[in-house]
From TrEMBL:
Keywords: Acyltransferase, Membrane, Transferase, Transmembrane, Transmembrane helix. Its EC number is 2.3.1.-. This is GNAT family N-acetyltransferase. Residues 156-345 form the N-acetyltransferase domain. The keyword Transmembrane applies. One of its GO terms (molecular function) is acyltransferase activity.
Length: 364
């Protein structure tokens, strides 16, 4: 009897040990598979995405920021509209090591938007994921579809630039190459780094190479008076800027190979943070609208800026940049300046504030 009981117990122990070993082997196999899949298809990270949507027969392009958390062949995350803040949660899996297949749904309970997406992975090593989405559009009340493209957000280090910084000449050269020869002088850039209310930021990659530059400063009274005058001439009700501390995003540029990877957006948000630290309650920017590729209004609106007014031939009249060669029209520049603004009261560093602008067109 004791021998039989001992044999039963040994059998149970052996079966249990065998089951535990089998389970450990299975977990190890799955872990290795997850590691292999993650290394082969590293989709986790932050992306800047664009997708096409149709509303009342009009196709529009929308920019989102996409966050992905990957566990092997499965993933989850969300996309957030850079202009409105609307968010969609999603999850899915890698299919046949070639595609992403998933579903999305509105984050808010009252948001009825939901659907599916199917993305190709053949460009993932270059930081791209692209494909199609389809679903029910809560705004249109119908089934809609379109393209969806993700580009991995560049990982850059953004820091202050000093007058003696070895990278400053390269930053000035990048601004002039991007905005027009003579737009920024070395002396102007050095002066901006020296003033307590000036901001010169550079974005560098992990090797310390320049990837972008952005400048900003607190507006002085003469500059605010000039802006008020120009707004009044354009039929915009005069704002009381003289009693408000206003920050100006002055100029920015990203190296050609770094464009479309969120570097410009990161430079905008970092400059807004600095202006808020300097006590500004509002930020404004005069963006180029040459009617071509040099317009920067899209990324500014993605950062929460709202369009206030169009000021034709703004740079024909000297406003500090005495002479420069516009990339579109030469000298003098006759491009339209687009004035955009945003509140900094509840700005949190990510561009989520959505305040209405305080300028309105004069009633006729």
């Amino acid at each position: 009897m004791d021998s039989d009981l001992r044999n039963v117990l040994l059998g149970l122990i052996s079966a249990t040990v065998a089951a535990i070993i089998a389970r450990l082997v299975e977990l190890f196999r799955k872990h290795r598979l997850r590691v292999r899949t993650t290394k082969k298809h590293p989709i986790g990270g932050i992306y800047i995405s664009t997708y096409t949507d149709a509303m009342d027969g009009v196709t529009r392009t929308i920019r989102d920021k996409v966050y992905i958390n990957q566990i092997g062949a499965t993933f989850s995350g969300y996309s957030q509209n850079l202009e409105t803040g609307r968010r969609f949660d999603f999850d899915g899996q890698i299919v046949n090591e070639k595609y992403l297949a998933g579903t999305y749904r509105g984050e808010q309970r009252e948001d009825e938007g939901l659907g599916v997406f199917y993305m190709a992975l053949h460009l993932i090593k270059s930081g791209y994921i692209e494909g199609l989405w389809a679903g029910y559009g809560a705004e249109s009340g119908s089934i809609i579809s379109g393209q969806w493209k993700w580009r991995k957000m560049a990982q850059v280090h953004i820091r202050d630039c000093t007058p003696s910084d070895s990278i400053l000449p390269d930053a000035v050269a990048l601004l002039n190459d991007s905005l027009g020869s003579g737009y920024v002088s070395m002396a102007e850039a050095e002066e901006l780094t020296l003033t307590p209310e000036g901001v010169v930021l550079v974005a560098e990659n992990e090797h310390g190479q320049l990837r972008g530059v952005g400048t900003a400063h607190v507006m002085e009274d003469p500059a605010k008076e000039d802006l008020e005058r120009r707004l009044h001439s354009a039929g915009i009700r005069r704002p009381n800027l003289m009693g408000t501390k206003v920050g100006l995003l002055k100029s920015a540029a990203v190296v050609p190979r770094g464009r479309g990877q969120g570097i410009g957006l990161q430079l905008i948000n970092r400059r807004l943070s600095r202006l808020k630290e300097l006590g500004c309650s509002t930020a404004v920017v005069l963006a180029w609208d040459s009617g071509g590729v040099h317009s920067s209004t899209g990324v500014l609106e993605s950062a929460g800026f709202q369009r206030v007014a169009d000021l034709p031939e703004y740079w024909r009249e000297p406003v500090g940049e005495e002479t420069f060669d516009c990339l579109s029209c030469g000298r003098p520049c006759v491009c339209t300046a687009v004035l955009l603004r945003r509140s900094l009261y509840d700005f949190d560093g990510e561009g989520d504030s959505r305040k209405k602008h305080f300028w309105s067109r004069t009633p006729t």
